[in-house]
Every structure is written in C-alpha cells, then in structure tokens.
Amino acid sequence: MDATAASAPTLADVVAALEGLYPPSTAEGWDAVGLVAGDPAAPVRKVLLAVDPVADVVEEAIDWGADLLVTHHPLFLRPVHSVAATTFKGEVVHRLLRAGCGLYVAHTNADAAPRGVADALADLVGITDRRPLVARDDADGVERGIGRVGRLAGPSTLGAFAERVAAALPATAQGVRVAGDLDAPVSTAAVVGGSGDSLFDAVRAAAVDVYVTADLRHHPASELRERAAFEARSAGAPGATPYLVDVAHFASEWPWLRYAAEDLVAGLPEGTVTTRVSTHGTDPWTARLPSTPR
C-alpha cells in the first residue's frame, strides 16, 4: 500500500479515520485507547501496525521511517506518574518522539468493531452466518460486540478444525492446544481474540460445538469440560461440547492488523499514506519442550 506524492494528512486526520473505524466510546470502561504520543499537527505518510508496542516493534517503526505506530495492546493500561526514559515504557515514548513517530492504541474498541479482531479471526477459521458472541449497544446502527459465533463453512472433525486453525495463524512456540475428542464432529464455533475464559458462560449459552480463544487457564477450562461431560451424560448427548481450541494470545489478534491497514488507507485520501503490518512476532514465549514420559 504505497503512498504517492499527494499531500500527507496530519496525525489528527489519521486519528479521526481510526476513531471512525474503532470509536473510543465502544471500548471497555477499564481500557486505555486512543492517541498516546504524537503532535496532532504532524504529517503522517507511513503507518506501522502491530499487536504490541514492544522495543523491537518500536525499532522497526523507526527504521522504516514510520510517522505513526498503531498497536492493539496499550502501552499504558494502568495509570502512571512518569514517562521518564529511566523506565522501559518511558524509553519507548522517548524513542518514538525523538524519531517523530506517534503512538495510537485501538484495543477493545477494535475487538468489537466490524472487520475488527473478532471478525478477522472468524474469517480466518471459516465462520459464516455469524453474530457477536456478546452484543453491545449499536446506537450508531452498527452491530458490534465481543467475539463472534456462527456456523463453520462446512462440517469437520475437531481435529481437522484445530489443524486448520494452526495452519491459518502465525506460528508460535505454544502452537494450538485442544480439549476434546479429535474425531468428534463440529459444525458451529465461537471465537474471541485474546484472553477468553471469562466468556465461558456466553459460549455455553450460544450452544456451539467448539470455542477458539487464547490464554485458557487450568481451572476455568477444566471446570467447563467437566460440566460439559456431566451434562452430556445426563442428556444422553453424543458429545461433551463445547470443545476448546486454545491458541497464543498474539496469534489470535494478529490477523486483524491487515484489515486495519486496509481500512485505514481506504478512509484517507487516495495515495496519501502507506501502511505496513509489523513482521515481528511479539508472543513472549520462545520455546516449547514436549513432556518426557517417566
């Protein structure tokens, strides 16, 4: 997506385009979204998009000559009293500002948006006829909400579906974990990018066969599967659904970056801004060792 010599929009113009796509008012109350650093009057010709505002991504933005870095995860999710360069987060801000690069965050507002994190993940794993897993007020006439739920493009087994997920997402040390019978048939699914075990009640209410999300913890996952098995036995049902497909947090949110890059360019005057999706994997895990039988 290359910009021509057309007049560059200002950072304020780019922020307005981003907030048209991901209104800050649709973020969760605890979230911290919007412009973190940068001069609204500064021109913007290059925008780098990434999941995390970590040091390697900042270096990539600076090396490429980006005028703006857009990330999914906030740099400052909790209040701080200093951005001095003596702290690792303060140094990020100083490096960006010295290079003339701003920082903007679209987090839970991007999760809920059309063509946001949830839609990108749902598209990748093949969910059709979908709706938000947890719908939000659509006062602006746009359907928004956390997660997506719908039908798979075609019937599958749990194992084949999990393999499709693994092949579609960026490779990570964790890979893909599965809870359930790999030969069980699945035809409906729910997805939530990022940490999703707080939404188990909504997933159960949606009565889907499989749930794709990240960061699943032992106790919530164990209790969900135990309850599913108990209720399947009680009802004489053939399968203890929902089955679980657990992916890396970074991998579940990375597909949205391409949508955001495309939609940002489409929302600005043609040929004025070049976008790039970061090539750095920001999953913090670097290796996975298989268990050795004792």
TrEMBL record:
Top-rank lineage group of the source organism: Bacteria
Pfam families reported for this sequence: DUF34_NIF3
Keywords assigned by UniProt, alphabetized: Metal-binding
Keyword Metal-binding: yes
Listed transmembrane segments: none
Disordered: annotated span: 275-294
SUPFAM superfamilies assigned: NIF3 (NGG1p interacting factor 3)-like
NCBIfam families according to UniProt: YbgI_SA1388
Protein name: GTP cyclohydrolase 1 type 2 homolog
Species this chain originates from: Isoptericola peretonis
